[in-house]
Design brief:
It is a single chain. 48% of the residues lie in helices and 15% in strands. The protein is of the alpha/beta class. Among the domains are: 133 residues, Leucine Dehydrogenase, chain A, domain 1 (Rossmann fold, 3-Layer(aba) Sandwich), CATH 3.40.50.10860; 168 residues, 3-Layer(aba) Sandwich (Rossmann fold), CATH 3.40.50.720. A 5-stranded mixed β-sheet has the order 1-2-4-3-5, with helices on both faces. Helix 6 crosses helix 18. Bound molecules: NADPH dihydro-nicotinamide-adenine-dinucleotide phosphate (NDP).
Length: 450
């Protein structure tokens, strides 16, 4: 596949040292050969070169004052990747690991994920290397206000609508929204993930985790299986992980693990959801405190991970839900999951599995739902929040959840029918990549060379 190597070489030259971005592009392009061979128009219009080059990349200085009166400086990003299908839409990530390569990989994935939802949204991503951990509320507020002082001129309800991601929840969205309103004088749906009393949507908080479980149910149903009575592993303990755990209990499964950046919990009787929410949504505590409430569980700190690998993936399970961060599950982890009988992976996180892990899942023929399909419930529900804001109404939780259920089923059917169309039934990586690429590419061709 010379075109994949050529594209990665060009990306290396024009945007050096962005390894996560090359990884995401390589995974997508490697799936496209059957489409490119069938239909020459994508090469004729040079869609690949146009698709991997963001429409616009904004980087800016975010200066703010900490509680000691010192001036701090972080780097801000907003990459408006592709608007062929609608206004730019995608989250903001606040984490010290953020740099151009991370935001670019997330933006590229977002374009294709948003296309899969069937909704009219383009793709973008943004964020900063600011670390909200250990900062006071006032420091987070001053950072968010400074971030918005630049961002506001690039966004708007029909232009670009940011949302949350790692490190950005309702608190950060509130500070960002307040500053946008102050700068523009407008109360409008410019951000999603807002609190309910000022424009948020019921069901948005739960959407990504619930959606990842719905996606697993749809994959399994095609094989005559269900999650009921099954043991599952979940990684992470943030927004996506918490609501994956919640939905797993609702469908009769037992989630037995969670993790954070300091370690992992294994609780064979089942993760206690109330304790998890208390620690992570109220106290902002490390998972090690879980043992205070449930001494029968076990906690392994990162420093004790054997060979540096998270032991979570070696816990026997029927289904796994990687819901923390990129590249958290490698080939050895995949081997351990398969060896212990895991037959279903539904990715709540973005790009949690390495190329080596994905190759093993596909070779084993298990149900494998790649992130851009399985975790699209979050952005889909963000679009439902935009629709409610635009028409000044608020739907019930049941209304939003039933739309989410239908959207996840639509994504599953689109990916699986496309995989079948191209002679690889069950390969949802190929199905999701071709279906989303084709949709964006066709719109780009319709709209001319811009
Ligand atoms: P949160 O910030 O709420 O939680 C992130 C979780 O992952 C925390 O438990 C965090 O631990 C852990 N984590 C983050 N970075 C690392 C790391 N480098 N190593 C180990 N653990 C880490 O984020 P979300 O739950 O919102 O996001 C999780 C994943 O889901 C991300 O990949 C995100 O892009 C993806 N996603 C999120 C959506 C959403 O709606 N929120 C939508 C679609 C995808 P700690 O708290 O200790 O840092």
């Amino acid at each position: 596949m010379q075109y994949v190597a050529d594209t990665i070489a060009k990306l290396n030259r024009t945007g050096p040292a962005q390894i996560e971005y090359y990884q995401a592009v390589e995974e997508v392009l490697s799936s496209l050969t059957p489409l490119l061979e069938r239909d020459p128009k994508y090469r004729k219009h040079n869609i690949i070169d146009r698709m991997v080059e963001p429409e616009r990349q904004i980087t800016f200085r975010v200066a703010w004052i900490d509680d000691q009166g010192n001036v701090q400086v972080n780097k801000g990003y907003r990459i408006e990747f592709n608007s062929a299908l609608g206004p730019y839409k995608g989250g903001l990530r606040l984490h010290p690991s953020v740099y151009g390569g991370i935001i670019k990989f997330l933006g590229f994935e977002q374009v294709l994920k948003n296309a899969l939802t069937g909704l009219a949204i383009g793709g973008a991503k943004g964020g900063s290397d600011f670390d909200p951990k250990g900062k006071s509320n006032n420091e987070v507020m001053r950072f968010c206000q400074s971030f918005m002082n630049e961002l506001y001129r690039h966004i708007g309800p029909t232009i670009d609508i940011p949302a949350g991601d790692i490190g950005v929840g309702a608190r950060e969205i509130g500070y960002l929204f307040g500053q946008y309103k102050r700068l523009t004088g407008r109360f409008e749906g410019v951000l999603t993930g807002k609190k309910l009393s000022w424009g948020g949507s019921l069901g948005r908080t739960e959407a990504t985790g619930y959606g990842a479980v719905y996606f697993a149910q749809d994959m399994l149903a095609d094989r005559g299986e269900t999650l009921e009575g099954k043991t599952c592993v979940v990684s992470g303990s943030g927004n996506v992980a918490i609501y994956t755990v919640e939905k797993l209990y609702q469908v009769g499964a037992t989630p037995v693990t969670v993790s954070d950046s300091s370690g992992m919990i294994h609780h064979p009787q089942g993760i206690n959801l109330a304790t998890l929410k208390l620690l992570k949504e109220v106290e902002g505590a490390s998972l090690s405190s879980y043992l205070v409430h449930h001494p029968e569980a076990s906690y392994t700190p990162v420093s004790a991970y054997p060979d540096g690998r998270n032991p979570l993936w070696s816990v026997p399970c029927f289904a796994a839900f990687p819901s923390a961060t990129q590249n958290e599950l490698n080939a050895a982890d995949a081997e351990a999951l398969l060896h212990n009988g895991c037959i279903c992976i539904s990715e709540g996180a973005n790009m949690p599995s390495t190329h080596g892990a994905i190759a093993q899942f596909l070779a084993a023929g298990i149900c494998y739902g790649p992130g851009k399909a399985a975790n699209a419930g979050g952005v889909a529900t963000s679009q439902l929040e935009m629709a409610q804001n635009a028409s000044m109404v608020q739907w019930t939780f049941e209304e939003v959840d039933s739309r989410l259920r239908n959207i996840m089923n639509h994504i599953y059917r689109t990916a699986s029918e496309t995989a079948r169309e191209f002679g690889q039934p069950g390969n949802l990586v190929l199905g999701a990549n071709i279906a989303s690429f084709r949709k964006v590419a066709d719109a780009m061709i319709d709209q001319g060379v811009v």
